[in-house]
Every structure is written in structure tokens, then in C-alpha cells.
Amino acid sequence: MKQSVQFAVVTVCLGSMLVVMSYLFFYWLSNTKKAMQFKFVLVWFAVALQTLCWQATLVAGAQIQQLNDMLLVLNVITFVMLLLIHERKCVMQYSYSLTHDDDTKLPNKQLLIERLDSQVKLSTEHSLLLFRPAVLINARANFGYEHVNEQIKLTMGKLAQQLASMNVLCVEANHQHSRCIARLDDSTYGVVIVGKLELSQVEQFVCVINSVFAEGLTHQRIHLIDKVEIGVANYPLHASTSLQLVQRGLQALAVKPLHGERWHMFNIENVTLSQRRIAIASALKEAIECDQLSLFFQPQIYLNTGKVYGAEALLRWEHPQLGNVPPDLFIPIAESSGIISDLTEWVITQALQYQKKMIVLLPEHIVSINISAKDLLRKDLPVLFITLLNEHQLNPANVMLELTESATLFEGVDIKNALNDYRLIGVKIAIDDFGTGYSSLAYLSKMGFDEIKIDKQFVMNIEYSKNDQTICRATCDIAKSLGSYVVAEGIEDSQSMAKLQSYGCEVGQGYFFHGHYRLTITCSGLKKILKPPLYLLMILKKSLT
Fold it and tell me: From CA 398, how far away is CA 381, in angstroms rounded?
């Protein structure tokens, strides 16, 4: 009975051993890493030897019990050491992943800041040069991450070789390689220049970076090449800590380059302007909701008769803390922050409420509303016009949408279709600031504007400038040939008005008419102060007398 039990135990143990050995053997074959193969062979041999020794102990009894115990202790020590080695490698890999980029294996922002901290502690003067190759961003969408990551490694390798002979800080150094380029985020990279800030030295770095990326990236016969944005900040000139230095570098990198500029140095004035823009963006939404905005209406007058043609709605913002914020400042901010849609809807609503009161006094009164290029392609905006026109029972032909010339040149085909949507409603279209862009005669004929507005920069000095006179005369002739009205902005005196009138300009607006007709009023003023009979008497008194 005892022998049968021992036989059963031996059989089960041998079967279990075969299963474990088979699994380890096939796992060993499927693994291509040599280090892992060695570990599995070692474990495989230890399990096999321990199992055989244990089986022999069951058969032979106490004769080889001591050998089995010694082998068991040796295997346990071996397994523990393997586990400790594996754990150490995992910790090292985790530490490496914390300080390196997963895709490119370059040092990341954390390791860069550690190196910058060491430079700050030593009070060593240094500059941080951040660069953002636009070609890499475009390449990801066209070539995919895997291919672009390989291209980044090759490109950064070339750049590192070029920078090796220059005065750069080695962000990472070990027995295998040394790296001077760090990756802050998906598209931003940095290099630390050691020593005093010298513009000539920065120019050398800029030339090297641009030359490396000038070749671009190519994949499957598609070649991409684009500019490199570069920003520079210096310690201790611009920052007192490493984190502040990185922030200053990013702020310099965010500045939009002007013509001919290849890089930007950190400038406190740009930061002040940026902070003001952020404050304006955060306050603009509240301004719409809390009725801090107002519309002023500048009169448009027939030059031949002196009668009122209409009025242009001008948006103004008086903030309790920021003061008077000009439209040239807050309109671009509204466009970039996504608030422009709410702003446009507010202007349209207020302007059409004003128009409802005005047509009681002047049935042919035209109200002109400026529309942003960002809103022009919105499909819901024509619906808003239809709703408000029906609600106030207004004639669409008495509403003029003013579009800047740059807005009409944005994606010409779609703009034309968008304008057709408004023409179906019945509203009229004007091109504002004409002459400041690049519109051709064929383009004007194709778009078919109802009104062409001469920009005030050509009107304000028309009495003395032959060039401005030529431009205004030619614009009037073009408008007549196209069957469009001509409106001149910026008329400030009677001499300018007489010049334009001689060229055939029909309508004018400016401070000259503002002072003479006293028609610039706010929506709130129209509701609370000027009742329709008083306003009508003022128009009749000042017009044609």
C-alpha cells in the first residue's frame, strides 16, 4: 500500500514537471532577447534538477535527503537573486521613462529642468533655446507616428552632431551616448547654451537648426518642409529659476514672427501684452452677459443731397477695470478664443433693434453691420437674420453686411457660396476697407458687392496726396462700372468731401458728419433718452438746411 502511494505521488510530480518544463521551453523559444533566454534556461534547469532530486528522495529515502535540502536552498537563493535583479531593472526602466521621451528616447522636460537646476545652483550663466519644427507636426498627420518618430531620431541625431562642437550643455551623459537636445512636449525641443548671452552665438545656433530642418521629411514621394519657430531666454537676465526660464522660453517661442525674423528673444513687453490679452479674453464673455458693450452708430450721408443714407454700427467696450478696450484689440482676441460667435449675435440683435426704431423715422435707412470672417461661414447665422428680420418686420434690403477685404479673400469659393446664402435672404453685401488687400477687378465682378467702401487711409490725406486721389478716383470708376455704391470713410473736412463728390462718390461718413449731424448715439441712449419724435426733429433740423 505504501509503495502504491509513493508511485502515485511520483507520477503526479513527474506529470506536473513535464507541463512546467514544456511551458518554459516553448516560452524560451518564442523570446528573442538573449538575456531572457539565459534566465529561462537557468530556471528550466533548476526546476528540472530539483524535481528529479525530489523524486529520487521519495524512492531512495533519507540517503539523499541532505542533497535535496542543499539543492533546495541553492535554488531559493538563485530565484531570489533573479527576482532582485529583475526588480532593479524594472526600477531603472521606470526611472528612465520618467526622464526620457517614450517615442524618441530623448531627455524630457523633467531631466532638462534637473540640469538647469544644477546650473542655477552653480550660478552659471546660460541660455535656453527652444525650437518647434512645424514640419514634424504636419508629418504626423501625413506619415503616421511610427515613421515620424524614426525620422525625428535621425534628424535629432544629425543636429546633435552639428551642435557637438558648439558650447552646449550635455543634458544626458553615460557610457553609451551623450545628448544635448531635450524634448519638452510633442513638438517642442530645447538646447542649453552655456556662457554669456551673445546674439552672434544665438544666430549660429539658429543657422544650424534651420539648416538641419531645411531638408524636410519625405515619405512615399511626399515631401514636407516648413519653417522652424525659435525662442530664447537667458539666466539670470530673464529668469531666476529653471522653471521660470522654461516659461520665458515658451513665451518667446509663442511670439508670432514678423517678416525676416527667424527667432525671438524673451521680451517683458510681449508678456505684458499677452497677459492683457488673457485678461481681455476672460472678461469678454462677462461683458456680453453683463451688458458692458455698446453700439455707436456713425451716420452715412449722401454727398450730393446731404440726406441721411444710413448708419454703421460700431462696437465699443468700456470695462470697469481695463477701461476703454478698442475693437482692434478685442475682436482678434474674440476670434482666437471662440467668443466671436456670441459677440456677433449680440451686435446683430442690437443693430436690428436700432433699425426697427429708425425705419419709423427714415423708411429708407440702411444699417451697416460688420461681420467677422470667422462667422461668415456659419450656417446658423443666416437663420438668426431671418428670425430677427421677421420678428421686427424689417426689410432685408435695408440691412448691409460689411466684410473686410481680407475676409472676402479667405477661401474664395466658400465665401461666394456663403454670400449667396445672405443674398437669398435679401440683405446687401459691402466690401469694407477696399484698397488695403489684393482684390482684383475679376474678383470684385465675381463676388458682386452692392457697396464698396474706400478705406479712410486713402481719404484723410486726399487733399494733398496725388496717389490717394488717384486711388479714390479709380475706385469710384470701378464701382460705377460694377453697379455698386461707393462709400468713403474718414471724411473730416469739407475739402475732402468736395474732392470725393467730384469723383462720383455717392456716400460718405466720418467725424465731419458726426460733428455736423450729431447722430452718433448708443442703443441704450436711443431707448432711454431720444424718443422718435425728438430724433426726427433733430434730423429734419440739421438735414438740407
Answer: 18
